[in-house]
Amino acid sequence: MSRRADARLVALSLLLLGLVGCARGIDSTPAGAPNLRAWVAEVRARPASALEPLPVMQQFETFEYSAQGMRDPFTDVWVNPGGGNGTRPDPDRRKQPLEAFALGSLDMVGTIGAGRGLVALVMAPDGVTYRVRPGVYLGQSDGRVTGVFDDRIELVELVTDGAGGWLERPVVLALEDE
Q1: Is the dihedral of CA 158, 162, 164, 165 positive or negative?
Q2: Cα dihedral across residues 102, 108, 109, 110: positive or negative
Q3: How far is 158 from 144, CA to CA, in rounded Å?
Q4: What span, in angstroms and rounded, lies between the C-alpha atoms of 131 and 154?
Q5: What is the pTM of this model?
Q6: Taking the CB of residue 96, how many other CB atoms lie within 10 A of it?
Q7: Given a cut of 80, is residue 123 above it in pLDDT?
């Protein structure tokens, strides 16, 4: 015989041996299998346990929402039906240059003139010095200048009172000592 025939014979023998081993595993039982089969048979023979009853559905009380006619708290937050004291910012008024800056960032640096013609000099954070007379607006809270003096500028700001109205708050911008 040739080598090729010998290799085929060995391969065929191994294949037959493997098939015989697999067939033996299917048909025969290992040493512990009789106990396993007995246990499975016993478990199947037991009566089925009773199922727990379904939980009772809880009945909920119905609730009818009846607040449709009431005021919406999110749309009318800043509206005061009483109208406050009548003082309000003018939304149509043209903003002046110094209203772009917070009042705390503005510095009074001096005055020009005398008496009723006194003009205050205010330096803004942008480095520009502005002339301020009574009636000019300063700061971001609608602050209107009511008086210019040698050492200070007096103004009145409008702030919300939290209930939809406005309050006038007096403020002083003092001359810086250098």
Answers
A1: negative
A2: positive
A3: 9
A4: 14
A5: 0.51
A6: 13
A7: yes
Q: What strand order describes the sheet that includes 107-112?
A: 107-112, 119-123, 129-132
* pLDDT tens digits along 42-99: 999 998 888 889 899 888 888 888 887 787 767 655 455 555 556 788 888 899 999 9
Strands ordered across the beta sheet of 152-160: 137-138, 143-148, 152-160, 166-174
Tokens read off for 131: 């002339």
What's the start-to-end Cα distance of the chain, in Å? 120
The SS3 call for residue 33 is helix
Q: Are strands 152-160 and 166-174 parallel, antiparallel or unpaired?
A: antiparallel
